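SAMPLE LOG
Freezer: B-3
Tube label: C17
Construct: single chain, 352 aa
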Amino acid sequence: MKEELVSVIVAVYNIKEYLPRCVDSILSQTYRNLEIILVDDGSTDISGKICDDYAGRDNRVKVIHKANGGLSDARNAGLETAKGAYIGFVDGDDWIEPDMYRAMYEACKREQAQIAACRYKQITRTGVIDASTGNSVSLSKTEALEIYVCGDERYLIYNSVWSKLFSERLIRGMRFPVGKNSEDIMFTTKAFCKMERLVYLDTAYYNYVLDREGSIMNEKAGERRLRDEIPFWREQIAYIRDAGMPELSDKAAYHFYRRMLFYYIDFMEQKQTRSFAEEIIKQLREDKKNGTISTIYGKDYVAAGDRVRMKLALLLPDVYYLTVKLYDKYIIPLRTGAGNAQVTAQKRGKNE
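STRUCTURE (predicted):
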């Protein structure tokens, strides 16, 4: 089988400490027919020079130097240049395992899938989190979208574009929204709505570096959630409905509201983000007023506990916050053992 060209796009901005590890991991891929596009997004350190050094040593490396425009703008510049039949993305402070693109490319060809997705390791300050099973499964568009929207513990199919390999034909003409964070949400949603099949590899080929521990929000992160992330989740709900999948759109709305309640708890954890918590409740009450929440929470798949939580949050948000904190402190240890309490609380939050 002739190996087609795979383009790997790396956005680079002031990451001189991490960039060599990232690029070396791509150059070391067992899949050799690669086009590696390093987009220097106006770096003010020596990252741009490091990119040029790699281009001088390996003709598979191409470098784009541009004025700083943010992650989306850098990725778009890479997409404009890419010549590959398949497109992958790697963040410059992460790295990948040697067989990542071979495994994903061969899976796409074997299953006639337009997207391959893999699990990833979470690299934290205290260790590595890897729940790989080594399984591989081929999913229809409907199956993959259901997992993507609703979640499934058996699969880690998330928004991130860096854990995926896309057919170029599938994403041709698609671009990331410039000037926004959480840009992967809609890019991935649109690609999933266009595809026919996805193959999921439950092997952690990608190493994702976490900058911080836990869910405590700082003010800047809170602003990003309100300004970018929440509007993108709302856009996702509308996009799926417009794509002719109203039931899935309702499920996306249900999981959006669960996520909003988690955001509320997260924002309440620090005094400087309490105003963001108030904005969450304001938005939820507006959705209740226009009937959206009543419609969604009237569905038979909505858990009874979620109905109670939403009612309490809308009526008495401070009491809801205290109830959740007491639950995490006293009830979870009784059910799971004190040693697993923190992990369980984090899992609850991630699922929401």
